Amino acid sequence: MTRRAVITGWGRCVPPVALTNADLERLCDTSDEWIVARTGISERRISHVEGTDLAELAARRALACAGLGAADLDLILVATCTPELLCPSVAAMVQHRLGAVNAAAFDLNAACSGFVYATANVTGMVQSGFVERVLVIGVEKLHVAMDYRDRSTCILFGDGAGAVVYEATDSGAGVLSVDLGADGSKGGTMVLQAMGTRGDPYGGRTPEETRLHFEGQAVFKIAVQGIAGSATRALERAGLGADDVDIVIPHQANGRIIESAARRLGVDSERVFVNIGQLGNTAAASIPMAISDAVDSGRVNPDDVVVLTAFGGGVTWGSIVMQWGDRTEPVGTHEGELPPTDATVFDLLESNLDFYAPLHADEPPAT
Ligand SMILES: CC(C)(COP(=O)(O)OP(=O)(O)OC[C@H]1O[C@@H](n2cnc3c(N)ncnc32)[C@H](O)[C@@H]1OP(=O)(O)O)[C@@H](O)C(=O)NCCC(=O)NCCS
Known about the structure:
CATH topology: Peroxisomal Thiolase, Chain A, domain 1
Distance between the termini: 63 Å
Number of domains: 1
Bound molecules: coenzyme A
Largest sheet: 5 strands, mixed
Structural class: alpha/beta
């Protein structure tokens, strides 16, 4: 039997403070109706703690779900494009907090495709016999890069974390095929500059350098083609077709991107999991959070053929075809929560709004 990586634990951490479409109407010239119709998003989360805190809690929940202790892990792999620190990595900080003393740890950045890239890495490491049990986390604190007076971008993105545990198995279940790709020539369509070394690293970042540069329409077109093509290739590699798919759990980029991509793929909407309405686009965190939601809401059954597919900055894309294992109930639960907060969303965004204000000095003040 082929040795494969199968998901045995899942968990997520959704920060408690929501930024609703009504809140956004107070910050820029937009409307709930426009946002819902064009994106499917009603609210997104603004984290009052660091992304590492979100990652840690999602990880504890996934470990309890798998019935494993931290010392059982061989590797912690974190997908993120908004790490709390570049070094030490988020993975290393989580390793320390969990007490995962036997685990190697590193971060990976493939933007919104990060979780799929991480899963591809784990698949190779499990198949080669290098690791047995791996924690993969997707986490983002994207609101830092949002200019909430720029309606073309700020409506889309949110904060959050999701985690899964992969274990080696020879049961026949697990990751069946992988497709990964990138086209760096289109990288200018989504740029997050401030985390890198480009420019003057000593002068402090300007608002223009810090906010996400995003060409929505261009990204939309590349994303629909990219996702459908990648998922089709991954299915072909697994020897399967669209009819064999029980559920597609896509990166939650935009409700319309997901619909168009599913149509191209030949999968009807009942077999596509969408939870973007309450969370927005959380980049590398979106697929592991969606896996958690899908399993907990009974949308995934034992032995199901599950397709994960994503598209993101770089540009990058990737798809995974897996057969779910024999368990959709958690072995255990972790009861911990994030530290509580009394802050309103406008309290949490105060320094953000001040920072980006100079870019809008000539515009009428927000209502
Ligand atoms: C950003 C996005 C929602 C914009 O939707 P769209 O249908 O392409 O909208 P357009 O950019 O064509 O804008 C249409 C009109 O709405 C306006 N508009 C843009 N944002 C708006 C907002 N938040 N509220 C109200 N009106 C808005 C535009 O100014 C434009 O007005 P005009 O016709 O008078 O010029 C969409 O392009 C998108 O989702 N792109 C990719 C999303 C994504 O998540 N990518 C990440 C992949 S990892």
